[in-house]
Amino acid sequence: IVEAVNYDRQEKEIKLKYVLPKMTISGDKNVQEAVKALEDLLKRMSNIKKIEFAEISSSYSVKLNYKNAGKKFGKDVSEVAVLVSKADATKLKKTVEKGKTKLDKFELNKDDLIFTEEKGEGKDFDGGKIVLDTKITDALKKEWLLRELIRAVQSSRKEMNLNVKDTIKLY
Which of 8, 23, 85, 145 could be stapled to 123 by a disulfide with Cβ–Cβ 3.0 to 4.6 Å? Predict the structure, then answer.
């Protein structure tokens, strides 16, 4: 999960030092149990304020499998291809997974179609998917600036060889 978060941050050019408001996780029961048990650790390692669970649905594109459909539909294969291209691929996939489906007068099964998952938002990990909330609010920007200030002060203290008990004044 942390690797998926880091990869997503890297793609979106959001450094790990910047806190994000929320991460949504989708996964089976085992993933949810593991996340609940390790929630604080995941928040710290991913620099996320809140973790939520939700079903993250995938979207698909579909095309006709001409190898199977050509034999099955013969001269009507081009008409079937047009119908398939106009159909909602995600709905069609759900219907075909249950068995056969009908487009106009043509009956199709899963062997007649080729589905491709569209690259959507979020990142997959073993057993699920994460989506980061990357909306940057004014409060978040202020928090980022405060963390940067603290980091700069601590770095300066270290360079000046100050002890923990030494007090300083900022101007």
Answer: 8
